[in-house]
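A quick aside before the break. I want you to see a complete sequence-to-structure record at least once, exactly as it would be stored in a machine-readable document. Don't worry about memorizing anything.
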Amino acid sequence: MSLNEEQKPLLEEDQIHQEFEALLEDYRNTNHRQKVELITKAFNFANAAHKGIKRRSGEPYIMHPLAVARIVVREIGLGSTSICSALLHDVVEDTDYTIEDIENLFGPKIAQIVDGLTKISGGVFAEKASEQAENFRKLLITMSEDIRVILIKISDRLHNMRTLGSMPPAKQYKIAGETQYIYAPLAHRLGLFRIKTELENLSFKYEHPETYQTIEQKLLADEVARNKFYEEFSKPINTKLTQMGYEFSLKARLKSVYSIWRKMSTRNIPFEEVYDLLALRIVFKPREGMNEKDQCWMLYSAITALYKPHPERIRDWVSTPKANGYEALHVTVMGPGGRWVEVQIRSERMNDIAEKGLAAHWKYKLGEADESELDKWLKTIKELLEHPEPNAIDFMDTFKLNLFASEIFVFTPKGEIKTIGQGATALDFAYMVHSDLGNHCIGAKVNHKLVPLTYKLNSGDQIEILTSKKQTPQLEWLDYVTTARAKAKLRAMFKKEEKALITEGQEKIEAQLAALKLAPDNEHMVRILNHYNITQRNELYLQAGKGLLNLGEINKILFRPKTQNVFTKYLKIPFVGSNENNKQGPTVPVDSKIDRKKPLKLTEENAGKIFRLAECCHPIPGDDVLGYVDDSETVIIHKRQCPVAAKLKSSFGERIISVDWATHKALSFEEVLEIKGIDKKGVLIEILKVVSEGYGVNISKMNIETNAGIFIGRFHIYVHDVEDINNLCKNISKIKEVNSVQRVQE
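That is the input. The structure line, written in tokens, reads:
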């Protein structure tokens, strides 16, 4: 054995103990009661349990629980129970120790949290997603009993995201996808803004590495000018607040790469048109004997004396905090050089809550009666669990609805203020107040005017719900509601009705078969299903129960001579066929397996045979894409930012594969270009000249609207790949009258 190999374990041991000392140092810097002995005991136990195990990156496994524990204490501000739980969070799953062992050594509280973490480790969003409904339910029960479970899980996910580089691409897409789909909204909902921003940014970095790098470089290039502007803008504010005798800190807050990209995508604008890159945050130490809220408005008054405010961009979250506990006063003012700048005013307490979310919120809680919006949210989680969806993916969707990013404030007829998700309808509000009110709702009065159930509420609306005893919930109501609570209540009610109809339908069909002296066996049921073109028995029974099927036909169906086509009709998978006849289905045999570990090369020869492009997002060669292997081993290609792909990444991670475009110049794809500019004679001819002559690109459709000297044109063009579009945009933007050219992303 070489000297280096002998030294390696000693170096690793040294590295582990250095990290543990750093954890203890972080803990000593908090106001928590110092239980160093308990934390040392948990560390020694976990270190011994994980001994000799390595992470994919090659470092000792214990470095991961240590890193998670450091996030828990330093970035969320939790205490010894959470630190111990973080250190032990993988012990039960990865070693021979049980929850009973943890309970005997560390007590019931730590054991309960570790149990909650073990249940959701990998499972909820992993290989057997649809079998995980019960586990997901257990997570939410544990979470609503002890929120620390999810806070530690978010810390675990944050460390995994920070070290995602050592994973293969397909795994990166899966982990980044579920992070974006569930963990980032959860972090936001729990008030962990810094962590939420980092999770979104890291997900984006792994899903769109090139775009991420481009935006990062543009931010770097703009840094000197930005810093100069910040100095100029903040100097008068600094002077003014010092004169007022405040202790404060000023901090420039730069928009994250992900939120810049999201703004560019949703508004179809280039980087140069994202003007709110910079915000100024003021964190002040409140004066004794004065209300914090009043002091926020005093500082607002001082700033608006220096810079003119935008009248429509004042956000007052000090009078009514956000549902995740966030408090601050935001105002957008006109800075030097005609630039709008957002100024955020917070006290030290407000800043602590904004940075550390729920954990800090507890610290400032005044008494048991002081129920926060977060406590109310946890109550709604418990309510959702009363009628869980049997399908885990539907259940996750319903739960995700409850992670609304923004809320509005509305009033009851008596003037009570209520928080509800943005986009909520009058019917949502009825269900929020009480299920019975929702079930019998016939309409509402908003600001004393009669409105239908579908009316979308606005902040500040006063709502009175109108009911009738004769009213009962209708199936279309599911389309009228947007909140998780209302959807869950309605689905639970319809499920009861559905169950009764399924039983009735089954009895009807079995009675028909009994009259023909036949048993309801598999062969007979398959022929009936095929005849009505239904795939599920329950769906057949439901339609029969509703009286939608002519069951008198069963005699003819079963006594018709069998033809060879019965089997092909039942299989419903074409095994052979030309591309022309088989655009939807695969032409690949069912048993030819795709190698999911290797990236799939997307060549023109494979198009329609091994892979096909998703209808939902229409990817074209050059787009950032991933593959989803369906039941018939066909790879469906989605854009990485496609909402359908987000669901697939979260729910069927093991079916996601990485794919690479080969050079495509034979196939053409329809894309939409949006061109804006000055409406001047001859400008359209110049655009058409660039499109058709320069690139030989075909235009299938165009729509041009002009208004007061400005034109907006939408051109539907056929291109081979993203490179074609980029070149085209570059050359069209050289036309003097053209102001902007953007590919409209779907």
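Two observations worth writing down. The chain has six domains: 16-212, 214-363, 373-486, 492-551, 573-663, 669-743. The first strand starts at residue 248 and ends at 254. We'll return to this after the break.
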